[in-house]
Amino acid sequence: MNTYDLIFKKREGGKLFLEELEYLIGGFVSGTIPQYQMSAFLMAVYFKGMDTEELSDFTNIMVNSGERLDLSDIEGITVDKHSTGGVGDGVSLILAPLAASLGLVVPMMSGRGLGHTGGTLDKLESIPGYRIDLSSQQFKDQLKEIGVAIIGQTKNIAPADKEMYSLRDVTATVDSIPLIAASVMSKKLAEGASSLVLDVKTGSGAFMREEKDACKLARSMIKIGRHNERNMAAVISDMNQPLGVAVGNACEIKQAVEIMSGGGPPDMREITVVLAGIMLKLSGNFNGLNEAKAVAEENLKNGSALKKFGDMIEAQGGDRQVCETPGNILKSPDYSAAVKSPEDGYLTAIDTRKIGLAALSLGAGRERVSDDVDHSAGINVLKKISDRVEKGEVLAELYSSKVKDMKPAADMYLNSLEIGRENVESPKLIREVIE
Amino acid sequence: MNTYDLIFKKREGGKLFLEELEYLIGGFVSGTIPQYQMSAFLMAVYFKGMDTEELSDFTNIMVNSGERLDLSDIEGITVDKHSTGGVGDGVSLILAPLAASLGLVVPMMSGRGLGHTGGTLDKLESIPGYRIDLSSQQFKDQLKEIGVAIIGQTKNIAPADKEMYSLRDVTATVDSIPLIAASVMSKKLAEGASSLVLDVKTGSGAFMREEKDACKLARSMIKIGRHNERNMAAVISDMNQPLGVAVGNACEIKQAVEIMSGGGPPDMREITVVLAGIMLKLSGNFNGLNEAKAVAEENLKNGSALKKFGDMIEAQGGDRQVCETPGNILKSPDYSAAVKSPEDGYLTAIDTRKIGLAALSLGAGRERVSDDVDHSAGINVLKKISDRVEKGEVLAELYSSKVKDMKPAADMYLNSLEIGRENVESPKLIREVIE
Questions:
Q1: Minimum CA–CA partner of A8 in chain B
Q2: Which CATH architecture has domain A3-49?
Q3: How far apart (Å, rounded) are the C-alpha atoms in residues A305 and A259?
Q4: Could you give the CA distance from residue B391 to residue B389 in angstroms, rounded to a whole number?
Q5: Phi, psi of A211 (to 5 degrees)
């Protein structure tokens, strides 16, 4: 076997077999295959794709490059959620304790924010004391005890994927549907949950701007999961505007507490309840989605989800008082500013990615993996698509403890909006449920 | 400017501007842009191509990465030929002295054989004493004196192309029409001839198996040349069988002497005369190709071309006696064997590449650039497409001084042939002349 032939085969649209992929990825990880051959291969995959079996093999080789969490001694049904990322997507903060409050076991390994998207870990770390670095044993012990934990990915999960991702990141081969599918699924398979719900975002703040690409990605990941005997489902959801009203870290925790107290923005409630309903259905206890959703909705209202959130925070070293008086516990921003409408009209479109970048510029996110985050920084989104706006009316509030001059971020925010005379319909939140 | 964006732009089918290409190639050569980014870029070019202006810029940057031969002080019209390579393609050996005997100046820098194709330099080096490593000054002095020189490429011709070719060679990005065009033309432009005739081969022994790809490549190279004010023309010629009857080094010299003595195989004569005719037309002295061909044909018969060949050999340190008694001067092979037909029928097809590989296995060629060549090794091709063959009749003779057991090479040769009951037409040698 030689690397040239494998690159050539893929370039010509051929299918690589298990041994060929093992040779390629193994050689790449061990350094016997140089990066310049792997990057040429990855670009060929970008253009020529992979078929289902090939993709499943590719994914499994990456899973097997590291640790595979064994959750078999945990009673109950383990279920996880993965979102492809967006702006204001703090769903995991609510969904994980909600699902646990419904009797499911939620072993969640999350990531940090990068670029225009936020990360669940950064959000949780705005709660003083919250630890994301549990060992595998601590993680499993906590799951047994309270049924939910949200931690950072342990180092040894799919190391081949990490290395390949670094190379893709500098060679314009990240946004390839099969490569994204394999990357996500290699981590999720290694993390060991038996069921997985995908939230694939589409729109101006998503990696997949086109809905058809989002569907393609979702179906590709579902295939890989089912090939590996996981229960799989997916939601295609809108990211043409920020989800909820909070974009940042502490402010998204505060919003999560509101929702688990029975209030909060309706879009965020809706998607969380849909995802929880699907999780319940996947667990086999419900036939109809509406019935499952009703049960989930109830646990947001009756305080069960919030209690579970408090249990998780406490178990991971954080201050559970955040559930009662978040304003006292979370760091307040030192500076704030209002973004005002320059004209009368309707908010007709949002370049959501730019809103994520405005939040990043306030300190809420990261340009590089090594950057620090200002947990108090963020944006309060007061107007969404199809809302009426008056000249001078406040469209959003900006917060930061790092950036005093908020003019650039305010301009960026305004720049992301289209205000028109004719109103438009609000984008539909749940585009498709793939079960 | 950053490399990622340039890879991305090309991946999306965009056109890179001069400064962008300068940044990319300059960074690659100086080492500030890593090979893994260049290989991803090259694979993107494989899939997305380059437009004429882009390709011309790309080529010129490679020309400017090294020395540019200045032939402006040489009187007369300088004209060169480039062949994309094949099996038995010893045309340059005859064409260069023939064109010089017709009053043109032929500054030819040639290459060595690699893989299934032979190289003009290896063939010339089978003449004892022949030196291919003249300095630029010696090269020009010889051109002034006798009008022809065939030497190796001086080291500093298009070094960026050399480096990029090495990377393409291991990343399955060699057979890209724009990249081939840029690579060939960067060397030819740097070598300074004012006119250039291309012989683009097509068929089973050519890099461009399909005629339409050969035409595309020819047109692409012509465009680059004309963009740089060179007189350009091209011939698309057949490589579905070896050219002439000799495949190897010393044996091709012997065949060249035969042709310049008025004999030799008709296909080799024909293509040489066509190319010489086109060269004469490009020089502006002839209007019709037939008239120009007749003049060229005459110089093969009357000994003028052979005399020029002898002058060139002598000037470059070789023994010009090879023109009179080649059998006494060239090394004879120690071993030989006959390949016999296993059945009666007609020779209907040849996998010409395999014949090149059979010659390589006898020692006539190189697997790696660093390999040595057995100048006495080669093949005498006795039957060509549409020839009648009888069972037991000799199809070819194999020669070597390195390989005693010729069974494997004989099997390879036989394996390359198709013998059928129904005869076929001989493939047309000159497919197209692009002027």
A1: B172
A2: Up-down Bundle (1.20)
A3: 10
A4: 7
A5: -60, -35
pTM beyond 0.95, yes or no: no
Per-residue pLDDT of chain A (435 residues; tens, 9 = 90+): 899 999 999 999 999 999 999 999 999 999 999 999 999 999 999 999 999 999 999 999 999 999 999 999 999 999 999 999 999 999 999 999 999 999 999 999 998 888 888 899 999 999 999 999 999 999 999 999 999 999 998 878 999 999 999 999 999 999 899 999 999 999 999 999 999 999 999 999 999 999 999 999 999 999 999 999 999 999 999 999 999 999 999 999 999 999 999 999 999 999 999 999 999 999 987 889 999 999 999 999 999 999 999 999 999 999 999 999 999 999 999 999 999 999 999 999 999 999 999 999 999 998 887 888 999 999 999 999 999 999 999 999 999 999 999 999 999 999 999 999 999 999 999 999 999
Token look-up 């990941």 returns A221
Q: Where along chain A do the CATH 3.40.1030.10 domains lie? A: 79-326
DSSP A280-325: HHHTTS-S-HHHHHHHHHHHHHSSHHHHHHHHHHHHTT--GGGGT-
Q: Is A12 exposed, middle or buried (0-12, 13-18, 19+ CB in 10 A)?
A: exposed
Residue type for position A225: G
Q: Is B187 a catalytic residue?
A: yes
Q: How far is the C-alpha of B337 from the C-alpha of B259, rounded, in Å?
A: 25
Which residue ranges does chain A devote to CATH 3.90.1170.30? 332-420
Using DSSP's 3-state secondary structure scheme, residue B335 falls into: strand
User: Which fold, B79-326?
Assistant: Pyrimidine Nucleoside Phosphorylase; Chain A, domain 2 (3.40.1030)
Task: Return residues 364-423 of B near A (CB < 8 Å).
Answer: none
> How far A164 CA sits from the closest chain B CA (Å)?
12
Going by C-alpha positions, the residue among A408, A395, A400, A405 that lies closest to residue A338 is: A395
Options 3.90.1170.30, 3.60.130.10, 3.30.70.1070, 3.90.1150.10; CATH for A332-420 is: 3.90.1170.30
A129 in the Ramachandran plot: left (φ > 0), alpha (ψ -120 to 50) or beta? left
Active-site hit among A116, A187, A223, A366:
A187
Residue A174 near chain B (CB below 8 Å): no
What is the b/e burial string over B99-135, where b = at least 16 CB atoms within 10 angstroms of the residue's CB? bbbbebbbbbbbbbbbebbbbbbbbbbbbeebebebe
d(CA A54, nearest CA chain B) in Å: 20
Tokens 């044909």, residue located: B297
